[in-house]
Amino acid sequence: MKAYGDSVSGNCYKVQLVLNLLKIEHQWIEMSIIDGDTQTAAYLAKNSTGKIPLIELDDGRMLSESNAIMGYLAANSALIPNDEFYKAKMYQWLFFEQYSHEPYIAVARYIQLYLGLPDERLAEYQSLHAKGYKALSVMESELTKQPFLCGEQFSLADIALYAYTHVAHQGGFDLVDYPQIRAWLTRITQIPGFIAMRV
C-alpha cells in the first residue's frame, strides 16, 4: 500500500497515526502542498481533486478523504466500536470534525503556519476563532463526562479530532481554558503505537 500525504497536514497525520497504531505495512510518499506536488499531472491522474491524503492499494484502487481512509484502514479493529450506538457516535464526531471543527481550526492554522498571516487574510483568520472556540467548547463539555469522545473506548473519533486540536495553538487558539481537552490530548499520547506529528 502507498500513502500520499504532507506530514504537516492534520488530515494526513490522521492516516499516519492509524497506520502506525494498527501496524499496517505501507510506503509513505511525502508530498508538499505549498510546492504544488498535489497539482502535477501524475498526481491528478491518481486523484482528480488534487487533495491529500490518498492511499493506493496494491491492486491500483485509490481512496481519498482522510476520514474515509481511516474507516477503511481500521475496519474490524478496536478503533471502531462494536456497539452500534457508539459506532454511530463515532461517525457523529467524524462529521462534526469535518463540518464544525476543521473548517475553523485547521484553516486558521493554515493561514498562520503555511501562509504567515498575510494582511489580506487577517480578517478571515480572526473571524474563524469564534466558531473554532465553539467547537472546542462542545468537546470540552463531552470530555467532562468520559475519557474519550465515544465513552471509555479510544476510537477514530479521537484520532480525527486530535489531529488539529493538538496544534490549535498554531492557528492562534489558546487551550488554557479547556482542561478536559488538555487531559484528553495527554491520554492520547499514551496510547500504544502513538506517534507525534512530523513537524
Concise description?
The protein has 199 residues and is of the alpha+beta class. The chain folds into two domains: 2-73, Glutaredoxin (3-Layer(aba) Sandwich); 84-189, Glutathione S-transferase Yfyf (Class Pi), Chain A, domain 2 (Up-down Bundle), CATH 1.20.1050.10. The protein is built from seven helices and four strands.
SSE layout and pairing:
Layout: E1 2-5, H1 10-21, E2 27-30, H2 41-46, E3 54-56, E4 62-64, H3 66-73, H4 84-114, H5 122-143, H6 156-165, H7 179-189
Parallel strand pairs: 1-2
Antiparallel strand pairs: 1-3, 3-4
The whole-angstrom Rg is 17 Å
CATH topology of the largest domain: Glutathione S-transferase Yfyf (Class Pi), Chain A, domain 2
Question: How is the quaternary structure best described?
Answer: single chain
Instruction: Please give the domain count.
Output: 2
Number of strands: 4
Domain GST C-terminal: 83-199
InterPro entries: Glutathione-S-Trfase_C-like, Glutathione-S-Trfase_C_sf, Glutathione_S-Trfase, Glutathione_S-Trfase_N, GST_C, Thioredoxin-like_sf
Domain GST N-terminal: 1-81
Pfam families: GST_C, GST_N_2
What does this structure look like?
- This protein is of the alpha+beta class and 199 residues long.
- The chain has two domains: 2-73, Glutaredoxin, CATH 3.40.30.10; 84-189, Up-down Bundle (Glutathione S-transferase Yfyf (Class Pi), Chain A, domain 2), CATH 1.20.1050.10.
- Helices cover 50% and strands 7% of the residues.
- The chain contains seven helices and four strands, in the order E-H-E-H-E-E-H-H-H-H-H.
- Helix 1 packs parallel to helix 3, helix 4 (84-114) packs parallel to helix 6 (156-165) and helix 5 packs across helix 7.
- Residues 83-199 form the GST C-terminal domain.
- InterPro entries: Glutathione-S-Trfase_C-like, Glutathione-S-Trfase_C_sf, Glutathione_S-Trfase, Glutathione_S-Trfase_N, GST_C, Thioredoxin-like_sf.
